[in-house]
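**Paired protein data**
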Amino acid sequence: MAFNEITDLNNLYEAFRASMRGSSWKSEPQRFEIDFLSELVQLQHELTSRTYKTLPGTNFIIHERGKIRYIHGKRMRDRVVRHVLCDNVLDPSLWPYLIYNNGASQKGKGIAFTRKMFERDLHNYWLEYRTNEGYVGFADLSKFYDNIQHPKIREYIYPKITDASHWLMDEVLRDFRVDVSYMDDSEFTACMETKFDSVEYAAAIPPEMKTGRRYMDKSVDIGDQASQNIGTFFPTRIDNRMKIVLGLPRYGRYMDDMYIIAHDKETVNAALDAIIEEAGNLGLFINKRKTHICKLSSRFKFLQIRYSLTDTGHVVKRINPATVTRERRKLKAYRRLMDRGEMPYDRIEQSYKSWMGDFTKIMSKQQIKNMSELYFDLFGRRPKWRK
């Protein structure tokens, strides 16, 4: 893909419009568009002359599905550049190399697609063997985004994209670097091979210790569009090992969550060993607590849903109770934010409708009723559903 796709003003404008979705300027789009047009022209000049630099953003911590995540917020101009880079270079260059069962961050796919593929593999297993006697293995990468190494991004991703885009990717990776000026020589020498935790880093390292003396070329920002593309592609070596080398038809991945379904336990064990080996080659770390094997006849969890395969081939799905509990707590927190004027009602309703859309079909009638009653008790109204 030619680099002029990035510097084209029309593409920059479309990336700007996409970046506007959900932004704090959404209430005044026309005024902000007019104000930003000159910025787009300036961005075009900086990209054409290769003088573009990412500006400092904001840092904050969010709680998501019971996890603490450290987020770097980008300025609008930098979000526009990431959008146009991903839409015009990374997407068309990297997606052809992905296996079909990789559903993350791709148009027309997503988490619902990956769940569907997982359920299809369970059905197909029963159709082949006519039994639920078998095994499913799950593998999870620990602190996945935090430990993606920049030299390996250059090794695996740069050959897939146009040479003219390398300088912009270098600028993106420069922005992702972690200031480790506090490290002594031995710590700095070992940091690339040691598991990094951005949440611990944010809590333990004060700003005055980040002097710019030393940087670690590892970690990509959660929530950044370029990071999503990198994360989707980066473990492709694992996917190819599973699908091509080991010839496993029932393997799939959603970002850092992987599964393998096979008739015998030895096959699943060998696959997990291969995943651990390839992860080590990539500089990634396995989450041992979440990497395990289950019988298909038992209950097992994948992407927040509990499954079981019956002896008649029926795939039973149930929502994980912890997922419901987290949503109830989130709604109560939203109410407090709304009372303080920090969150508008329409965003709360949109979030709730999105969550219900994902899980309604696998919730019991009582769970749906309880959630509806809680929502009404908190906000005094019902969400408006499209007919």
